[in-house]
TrEMBL record:
Flavin reductase like domain: residues covered: 27-200
Pfam families: Flavin_Reduct (PF01613)
Cofactor(s) required, per the database record: FMN
Start and end residues of each stretch annotated as Disordered: 206-227
Name the record gives this protein: Flavin reductase family protein
Keyword Flavoprotein among UniProt keywords: yes
Stretches assigned to coiled coil: none
UniProtKB keywords: Flavoprotein
Length: 227
């Protein structure tokens, strides 16, 4: 079995591309766990990989009939929790669950209703500071946010949610001491790569715009050597 990471592909002089029709286009984006408020005041938790940041805005793509989309349409508070790579089993325990009851026909086969997703995943809730849904205690980055716009996508199957982040909580071990910088040599998102979970590989370089103070630090979160 070839276990070499993708960036280790040899530099071919004549690369051949083939046309394919993959069933999904999940080309490797971070997993977030969304906590949202249900109609009865309880809280839902759902793994999402369609999430990206633009300034203080985080844009989410959600299945139209899922409980998370339903909640954000009426109760805009949420927390965008970013798990570490080692937390992937908890994320995967949430994968077949929905907070929607009855389960919509559009959900994949095997999907079942779960009222207490925190317990089902083995995750602990901790109170937020400015929004009603709780944070996920073990997640190194937690973004308290508010959904400001919920719009249908072109297919009609999803909604695009624009959320504005109000408060950022970071595990102190991933913060460069005395600064507001996340240390990218210590923090790794959990990456959903064509339905397989990965962490980051070694650093390849950095943007000319980086402002992160540099210094050798060990990875505090997953026990691996310095990245
Ligand atoms: C790693 C991972 C990433 C996912 N990404 C998304 C996503 O970006 N958008 C989405 O709607 N569903 C995504 N899902 C599926 C939802 O988690 C699933 O539909 C779940 O039932 C939603 O829960 P809810 O109905 O309680 O909101 C993902 C699932 C996993 C395991």
């Amino acid at each position: 079995m070839n276990t070499a990471p993708p960036h280790a592909l040899p530099a071919e002089t004549a690369v051949t591309h083939v046309e394919i029709e993959p069933s999904v286009l999940y080309f490797g984006t971070p997993v977030v766990l969304l906590s949202t408020e249900n109609q009865d005041g309880s809280f839902n938790l759902a793994p999402i990989s369609s999430a990206w940041a633009l300034g203080q805005t985080v844009v989410l793509g959600l299945g139209r009939e899922g409980q998370s989309a339903y909640n954000l349409g009426s109760r805009p508070d949420l927390v965008i929790n970013l798990p570490a790579p080692a937390q992937w089993p908890a994320v995967e325990r949430l994968a077949p669950l929905t907070g929607r009851n009855p389960v919509p026909a559009s959900k994949h086969e095997g999907c079942r209703f779960e009222a207490d997703k925190f317990a089902a995943a083995g995750l602990t809730a901790e109170p937020s500071h400015r929004v009603r849904p709780p944070r996920v205690a073990g997640c190194p980055i937690q973004l308290e946010a508010r959904a400001e716009r919920v719009l249908p996508d072109v297919s009609g199957e999803f909604v695009i949610v624009e959320t504005v982040v109000r408060t950022v909580h970071a595990d102190s071990r991933i913060v460069v001491p005395g600064t507001d910088h996340i240390d990218p040599a210590v923090w790794s998102p959990l990456i959903y790569n064509f339905r397989h979970y990965f962490g980051l590989g070694p650093e390849l370089g950095h943007s000319y715009r980086t402002q992160t103070p540099r210094g050798p630090r060990e990875s505090a979160l997953d026990g691996t050597a310095s990245r």
